[in-house]
Amino acid sequence: MTEFFLPALSELMNPGVLFAIFSGTVVGIIVGAIPGLTATMAVALLIPVTFGMNPLMGLAIMGGVYSGGMYGGAISSILLSTPGTPAAAATAFDGYPMTRQGKGGTALTVATWASFWGGIISTVALLLMAPALAKFSLRFGPPEYFVLAIMGLSSIVTLTKGSMVKGLISGFLGLVLATVGMDPLSGYMRFTFNIVDLYDGIPFMPALIGLFSVSQILDLTAEIRIVNDLSDTISSIKRSRLPKGLAPTIVRGGIIGTIVGMLPGAGATISSFISYNFAKQSSKDSDTFGKGNPKGVAASESANNGCVGGSLIPLLTLGIPGNSVAAALMGGLMIHGLIPGPELFSKYGTMTYGFIISLFLANIIFLVLGIYMAPYFARVTSTPNALLIPGIAVLSVIGSYAINNNMFDVWLMFGFGVVGYFLEKGGFSTGALVLGLILGPIAELGFGQSLIMAAGSPMIFFERPLCLLLWAITILLMVPAFSGHFKKSRNKVD
């Protein structure tokens, strides 16, 4: 490996490659911040553009888009409660309450540092331990994926702020909605009502935009602006430092993101929810989560950026993409005649290590841009709602439509928005609903495939060592949450 370092660094010092990393990161931040426009879409659109470039330049610009896009999702999630990407949904739980308290710039600063360290941790893992970690990821089969999804769903207990029953009903509603569409094992159509657009299930991005964005628009109509006076806050942001005590949360989030990211199909969304769950259950001030605790932002953002390097581990070593963005990146490798596997680290070592090092540079670029621009991004929250609401509405419509170029998704987004508004007013948790909607298909597929493997015996979920480990972690996460709710209920009765 060491023999490729100096040639790789030399290649990276090419001004054209450096400009490619910078421009890719900036484009990624912009795309990530706009709800509905995903890094997958941007990387896929870039593939034909990079065909004429040298391979390192092409991969560097796509890596920059990937890193910047994952970070950019936090901006709209924190400032407008509208996640730019599904992976930033958990960021809104504490990021937006911080914005409402006039601490939007601080929340952005926390998100920037957490994203940076999450990305650095996963890239170091990619650089030093890729082959060993790739073999570990292959030990995950359908039973492990099912238990992992259950671990993610256990976050419903964490996300529930008021009534536990209403939180569980919200998660159950999300799981029911996740069953819409074709059965992944039998091909049987369920609850589609002969609507062709529902054959593949409910697209979760329009649902996500509706639940978080449209319901937020309805809330904002009752106010003049999100934050009335931001002048003091901006000056304090420039002087303020990162809140203390975030380092363990960020490191843990980066490790969780790396591990979950290298599991094909798991993705950044599940890692951010699991990391958020860990952060809340291990915190002494868990009651402040959901009300503007910086640890909630740090946990989510470090985990979803940790997935960047993690998802590239199985891609570069085994040719198995960890998520949809990595799959698009694989297309970028293929058009340059590069086949993932051992050859990438030997015959094409200079290019491969150059690409990995370029991810470090992309992280540094969005760190500098994020820290410098945070006070100015925060100004969005002082914009009069009369201007802000139409802007959010337009972005929501464009984001919903752009995914599949389908007006049905736009109507679906509005429908989820209205339903989400009344659910929030009724004390139900839209976060738990989204969690059920996203994790339901992963859990269902893992459950069905596992039963087929075991000839119908459910004991397969309790016989494999990794399953037992995941069950143990899940129980450890749920016990404190349930005991906390029971204590509160008992205190109310007393």
Helix count? 21
The structure class reads mainly alpha
Radius of gyration: 22 Å
The secondary-structure element order is HHHHHHHHHEEHHHHHHHHHHHH
Report the major sheet. 2 strands, antiparallel
Helix content: over 70%
For the residues shown, what is the average pLDDT? Answer: 80
- Contiguous uncertain segments of 5+ residues: none
> Order of strands across the biggest sheet?
1-2
Name the beta content range.
under 5%
Write down how many β-strands occur, each being a DSSP E stretch of 2 or more residues: 2
Q: Name the overall outline.
A: globular
**Terminal Cα separation, in Å?**
65 Å
What does this structure look like?
It contains 21 helices and two strands. With 494 residues, the protein is an all-alpha fold. It has a two-stranded antiparallel sheet with strand order 1-2.
Sequence-ordered SSE layout with sheet pairings:
Blueprint: H1 2-12, H2 15-33, H3 39-49, H4 55-80, H5 89-100, H6 104-137, H7 142-153, H8 155-159, H9 164-178, E1 181-182, E2 189-190, H10 204-220, H11 231-239, H12 247-261, H13 267-281, H14 294-318, H15 324-335, H16 342-346, H17 349-377, H18 385-404, H19 407-425, H20 430-453, H21 465-493
Antiparallel strand pairs: 1-2
Helix pairs in contact: 1-17, 2-4, 2-17, 3-4, 3-15, 4-5, 4-6, 4-14, 4-15, 4-17, 5-6, 5-14, 6-12, 6-14, 6-17, 7-20, 7-21, 9-20, 10-18, 10-19, 10-20, 12-13, 12-14, 13-14, 18-19
Brief summary:
The chain is mainly α and 494 residues long. It contains 21 helices and two strands.
Keywords, separated by commas or semicolons:
single chain, mainly alpha, 21 helices, 494 residues
